[in-house]
Amino acid sequence: MWMYYTTMNEKAPSTSRDEALRSIQRELTAFARRARSRATELHPDLSLVAFSMLDLMTERGGCRGADLAAYFMLDKSTVSRQAGALEKLGYLVRETDPDDHRGQILRPSPAGLKAMREAHEQRRIAFLDRLADWDDADIAQLAAYLERYNSAV
Amino acid sequence: MWMYYTTMNEKAPSTSRDEALRSIQRELTAFARRARSRATELHPDLSLVAFSMLDLMTERGGCRGADLAAYFMLDKSTVSRQAGALEKLGYLVRETDPDDHRGQILRPSPAGLKAMREAHEQRRIAFLDRLADWDDADIAQLAAYLERYNSAV
DNA sequence: CACATAGGTTGTATTTACCAACCTATCTCT
DNA sequence: AGAGATAGGTTGGTAAATACAACCTATGTG
């Protein structure tokens, strides 16, 4: 089966590549949805965003709210409130940035680190379960694809 | 360098499989973090969830609200309200399921299809950019992996 | 020294989604 | 056939997340 395409403006025909692209979009979206709904199970106190914030702070050895906002594409007010909640939980400590007294350096407290590690472990368990019947090679390949995909930011 | 593992409860040593699992976690989460912020750009009328709902309806040639709720792990009330909004926009039509009069079959209207295609095109542009240098085979493989991953509910 | 700017906080409104209660149609078991 | 039990869907109430705007303070720059 084939068709004519008469102008430059018409969409390309639906190829298998397009089908696959569409599928990738849909599946990634479904994943995002589910990740959000499962986030509660990670740790009773940590939303997905709060968890990710702690994660980035840890990875960078402390960072400013503005960094978090930029990284996660969140408004600074949102970060401020999330940070406030984490502080109230005793999960993070702030110190004035010695180099620039406008800013603060945010770090996980020991309790915050502990909670974050627990959430990590929970998540690892869930993933293991889901990928239990996958070959090592397939898992490695999927990981490689995702890294490649995300690195193209 | 090597270590002893003395009890069944200790974590397994870091194998390549574990490395890959950790990577998949991180990369999928990185995607989930940012998906939300990109959602607004898709279409003035369509939230990410609304768009995804239309997409799945289309893919399946019409489906019930319960299917959508299950697929996206959303509460049925959420689906009901999103469907109501889409209907008010003239983007979807409902018909009573002839096989089971409790349910409804939801389908995009022509306008809904149009809006969805526009949103899809927006997203496709972004994806194309990212996946421009991928082989068709790799894209198809990634799609297959994601489908497999998501179907393991 | 005056003004523009960056990091953060707070007020306000919107969106999103969950839970619970409820309705109707269907199914199952006797 | 009749009596629950159950599934799909709607509506009311509510909580959380987030964006936007206004504002404060510290910093940088002419």
Helical content of chain A, roughly? Answer: 55-70%
Overall geometry of chain A comes to globular
Order of helices and strands of chain A: HHHHEEHH
Fraction of residues in β-strands of chain A = 5-15%
What's the rounded overall pLDDT mean of chain A? 86
Produce the secondary structure layout.
2 copies of one chain form a homodimer.
Chain A lengths: L15 H27 L5 H13 L4 H8 L3 H13 L3 E5 L7 E5 L1 H21 L5 H16 L2
Antiparallel strand pairs in A: 1-2
Helix pairs in contact in A: 2-5, 3-4
Chain A binds a DNA duplex (30 and 30 nucleotides) through α3 and α4.
Short précis:
The structure is a homodimer of 153-residue chains. Chain A is mainly alpha-helical and 153 residues long.
What keywords describe this structure?
homodimer; 153 residues; mainly alpha; two-stranded antiparallel ribbon; 2 strands; 64% helix; globular; disordered N terminus; DNA-binding
Description:
Two copies of one chain form a homodimer. Chain A has 153 residues and is mainly alpha-helical. The first copy, chain A, is built from six helices and two strands. Chain A has helices at residues 16-42, 48-60, 65-72, 76-88, 110-130, 136-151, and strands at residues 92-96, 104-108. The first copy, chain A, has a two-stranded antiparallel ribbon. In chain A, a hairpin with a 7-residue loop joins strand 1 (92-96) and strand 2 (104-108). In chain A, helix 2 crosses helix 5 (110-130) and helix 3 crosses helix 4. The longest helix of chain A has 27 residues, at 16-42. The first copy, chain A, is globular. The relative contact order of chain A is 0.09. The model of chain A is unreliable at 1-10 (pLDDT under 50).
